[in-house]
Design goal:
Blueprint (H helix, E strand, L loop, with lengths): L1 H26 L2 E2 H8 L3 H13 L3 E6 L9 E5 L5 E7 L3 E7 L5 E8 L5 H18 L4 E8 L2 E3 L4 E5 L4 E4 L1 H9 L3 E5 H12 L8 E6 L3 E7 L2 E3 L30 H4 L1 H14 L14 H9 L3 H25 L3 E5 L6 H15 L2 H5 L2 E4 L6 H15 L6
Parallel strand pairs: 4-7, 7-11, 12-15, 15-16
Antiparallel strand pairs: 1-3, 2-3, 4-5, 5-6, 8-9, 9-10, 12-13, 13-14
Amino acid sequence: VRQLTKATHQQTRAYNQQLVLKTIYDHAPTSRADVARMTGLTRTSVSQLVDESLAAGLVEEVGRGRSSGGKAPILLRVDPDAREIIGLDVGERTFVGALVDLRGHVKQRLELPFTRPSAEEAVELIHRLVTHLRRSAERPILGIGVGTPGLVDTRSGTVHWAVNLDWQELPLGPLLEKRHGLPVSIANDSHAAALAEFMFGSPRKADSMVVIKVGQGVGAGIVLEGRLYQGDGSAAGEIGHVGAADRTLPCRCGSVGCLETVASVRAMLERAAGLARSEPASLLHDPAGALSPAAVADAADRGDETARAVIDEGGRALGAAIAGVMSALDVRRFVLVGTAVGFGERWLAAVRAELTCRALRRLAATTDVQLGRSSQDIVAVGASALLMTRELGLSLAR
Ligand SMILES: [Zn+2]
């Protein structure tokens, strides 16, 4: 019984420690008295817990606040430079590694392009990125956050399936923990992007939002009432393989007619290149074979009908999918991220138009669909945010 009590006491203490840290993180600059008021803990406990965080270098005193009669209170905040997190974006074309501070700022980044590595080579590349970033870190490293495409079990750190990297049932989390001796969090790349947008993106108007990442694939990251919603098997938001088109185009998942076969950047650029070949007059004609979303958007701006059709078609297919997500969840804020953002305002307009005619008008009218900040590090930053929220108990809410 005594051991049980001791364990419970330690748990309570750890819980309170995280609660205090989270409260300071969310409400900084704030005072010990305000933290006590907000958490319901006694001022004595708060003072002790704050002292521990000060000693650990996580919290710092930043001057004095306004006096409410007595002595002006000392203000506290979480020192953004107290720790660095290694955030990794295990993309389908390049791997990006970044050192990220506790406010989501990228301090250093490193990018490794590759051409179809084997499963083992891909893991080795990740080890190299981590080793290199660790060497150049200027602060203590809190851990490693990884965002990867595919089906990921966040709890066990297993990548069930990442088609482009040839990974199946890969225990990436445990592998990284073992090699580097650091805590590791792994999430699907769209989930990571959602965390980055929610925690560090544009000012939050609601506690729920859906981030749709459109790049080589299409996936959604869902934040519900301030928490990342990952579903029973960490596969929430896997909308890229829901049937969308006339069921003729083969998808890399083995099915036909998936949303990805019309709405992904890969599909849209392939379609643009194909149409350009058959229509020599098209502005899309690209001898280097390196069409980009921006190039298609530019041609559309200059009146190219082919480019316009490609953008409108991709946007409409995505808008129809968003109508389903919006109606199921009653989330009214959608942010579009990924390389498809390069298709620009015309693409966004097509998404919005289709959403409006595919959902209850009352709901669609109050739904906000926007292009996200176009940071190329969004997945790496989001993956580091996941690690940070877990290790420090920091909330997703600001
Ligand atoms: Zn598919």
